[in-house]
Structure formats: C-alpha cells, structure tokens
Specification:
CATH superfamily of the largest domain: Dihydrodipicolinate Reductase, domain 2
InterPro entries: AGPR, AGPR_dimerisation_dom, AGPR_type-1, NAD(P)-bd_dom_sf, Semialdehyde_DH_NAD-bd
Function: Catalyzes the NADPH-dependent reduction of N-acetyl-5-glutamyl phosphate to yield N-acetyl-L-glutamate 5-semialdehyde.
Shape: globular
Number of domains: 2
CATH architecture of the largest domain: 2-Layer Sandwich
EC number: 1.2.1.38
Number of helices: 12
Distance between the termini: 41 Å
Keywords: Amino-acid biosynthesis, Arginine biosynthesis, Cytoplasm, NADP, Oxidoreductase
Pathway: Amino-acid biosynthesis; L-arginine biosynthesis; N(2)-acetyl-L-ornithine from L-glutamate: step 3/4
C-alpha cells in the first residue's frame, strides 16, 4: 500500500518556502500538513502566493506553536539564517526528519561557521550529525540521515559545475564570478535589493569572497588562497550563473574534459552537459533552466590546454534551494529522488 508522508513547511510565506509549497502541491507522495509563518497566521496561503490558490485554497498559515502539535514525517525549514537550530533540536527529539534550507548546519566545522558567519555556532553537535544537502555528492549519506542541510544557491551552482575537475585534482587556481537574480535577496527588500535601486544595474556587491565560498571550499577540498569569488547582481528575477576561469594543474586535451564531465554527470538526473555546437548553446544561461530542478554546465578550453572557462546555470529558487531540498527529502523518505521534480524549464521567459 502506497504511503503518503506529511510535511511541515516553515518560512512558508517566503520565496524558498513558497517554492517548496509549489513543488509539494504536485508531489505524489508528500502532502503539506502545515505551512508555518509567524507573521501571517490565519491568512490563506494564496494571499501571499496567488499562483497556489487552486492547490491550497482552504489552507491557512499557522504559527510555531501550532506547527509543533501537527504530525510530520519531514520538515522543511526555509527560515532566516541563525533561527533554525532551536527548531531542528525540537524536531530531532521527536524523531522527525529535517531539511534545513538556512545556513545553520551547512558547514561541518564550528570554527569555519564562526569565521564565515561571524558568531559561534549554538550547537556544534548538529554540524557533526548533519549531511550537506547536495544529493549529487552525498546521496548515500542523505538516505541514512535525519538532518540534511540546504545548500547556498551560489555554492550549489559552483559545486555542481566544478566537482568533476576538483575531484581529479585539476584545479590549480580559479576565479569565480556568479551573476545572480533579485530573488536571491528574499522577500523583504533592502536598499540594495529593492527594485527601484537594483533595476537596470550590474552591481558588483562582493569583490573577493562570499559566505557561500565556505561551502565551495568544503565540498571541493580547495584552498581559499587559490579561489577568488565575485558576486554581481543582474537584471533577472530567478537564476544564478557561474563563470569560472580556471588555471588547470596540468595540460589536458578537450576530449579528456568531455569524458570527465560525461562520466561525472552520468546517472545524475538533474545535471546536464551542454553540447559543443551550436555555439550559442555551449555556455548556459539561467533562462534555459527557469522553473526546473536542472543544472546545466558548459565549458571551453583554451588552446594552451591549461586555461579553461566553465559556466553553470541554475534556477536559484529551485536547484539552489527548494528543488534540491525536496530532492534530498525524497532520499530521506526512501523515495525516488526525482519524485515531484520532473517539471520542465519554462522557455523563453
């Protein structure tokens, strides 16, 4: 007999939480039991997410206290950074599986957490028990875990594009630029993210490092001195695009790189390698993956065999947040990792 799992979605009035709700609305095996929003208790979900009216017509947001009284098999925490730990602790005590989309358990080291996030971690034991939530790298561990982290959207974009090279020790030095859409800033506007100030800009807001770099260094086993990461805000809503200029540790032929990526991406349902031709499709842009859980990667190798450009594109709210979280939850619940995530990209947008 087929089992339906119950889900609680915290931070459900935000953008990432709203994406989790959108995915689960059509998920065959997971049903939303409660959508948690402290500030919007009692309001209909569709008043915040109007595109979900047909799916959640009668469901209202509940507060934290109500949520803890609801039965749940899996919990998604799309809450602000620094606020997830106490919620994680309570659910783990109840034996409930948790996927935390915030940054609170993404790093394995408490020392690294304090370095990159500016304060001591409130419960370092959680860092030891949590699994970093990229199924493409940690699928087996995720299946056995009760606590899985979310991923930084910029980090996910970079890691998925670069891990085939990193695990072969081919990255000597790398300069990364990530171009990001406005949805990365979340639902609450700031002076930097508010539309009137952000529109029609190409704003470099992190010239050398970004806190998501911590995840990249951790997952790719790179030294910080060898990596520069620049962040640029661009005129799109959804999407992240990584441009990685790489100095390879040895001279290679283009055919070797093709084989390396094809082997690494084989049996990874959401990773796509762009074709060599036509030229305008070789290096991907976020438009190609909008609304989907796909990550697309393309590359070009300099004639000297040592310099290389790798480009990866994702939808930051999907593969960079909610999509990967649901993918991880599928594995935690013993489901096929593609359940509820087979939607095609919307193109053009």
């Amino acid at each position: 007999m087929k089992m339906t799992f119950k889900a609680a979605v915290w931070g459900a009035s935000g953008m990432a939480g709203g994406e989790v709700l959108r995915i689960l609305a059509r998920h065959p095996d997971i049903k939303v039991e409660c959508a948690v929003s402290k500030n919007k208790k009692g309001q209909f979900i569709w008043q915040t997410h109007p595109h979900l009216r047909d799916e959640y017509g009668d469901l209202t947001f509940c507060d934290h206290d109500e949520a803890f009284l609801k039965e749940a098999d899996i919990v998604f925490l799309a809450v602000p950074h620094g606020t997830a730990v106490s919620v994680i602790e309570k659910y783990l005590e109840k034996g409930t599986k948790v996927v935390d989309l915030s940054a609170d358990v993404r790093l394995y080291s408490a020392k690294d957490y304090e370095k990159w996030y500016g304060s001591p971690h409130p419960n370092p034991d959680l860092l030891i028990s949590a699994v970093y939530g990229l199924p493409e790298l940690h699928g087996k561990e995720i299946k056995e875990s009760n606590l899985v982290s979310g991923v930084g959207c910029n980090a996910a974009c970079c890691i998925l594009g670069l891990f085939p090279l990193a695990r072969e020790g081919l990255i000597e030095e790398i300069r990364i630029e990530v171009r990001v859409g406005s949805s990365e800033a979340g639902a609450t506007p700031t002076l930097g993210s508010h539309h009137p100030y952000r529109s029609r800009t190409l704003r470099v807001y992190e010239p050398f490092r970004h806190r998501h770099l911590a995840e990249i260094l951790q997952e790719l086993s790179l030294e910080e001195d060898a990596v520069t990461m620049t962040m640029t805000a661009v005129e799109i809503v959804r999407g992240a695009q990584m441009l990685a200029h790489i100095r390879l540790s040895e001279k290679v032929r283009e055919g070797e790189i093709w084989r390396l990526y094809k082997n690494a991406y084989r049996d990874k349902p959401f990773l796509q390698l762009c074709p060599a031709k036509p030229a305008h499709l070789r290096l991907p842009e976020p438009k190609m993956v909008t609304g989907s859980n796909q990550a697309m990667t393309g590359f070009t190798l300099h004639e000297d065999g040592r310099r290389m450009l790798v480009v990866t594109a994702i939808d930051n709210l999907m593969k960079g947040a909610a999509g990967t979280a649901v993918q991880a939850s599928n594995l935690m619940l013993g489901l096929n990792e593609t359940e509820g995530l087979t939607m095609m990209p919307v193109y053009p947008v």
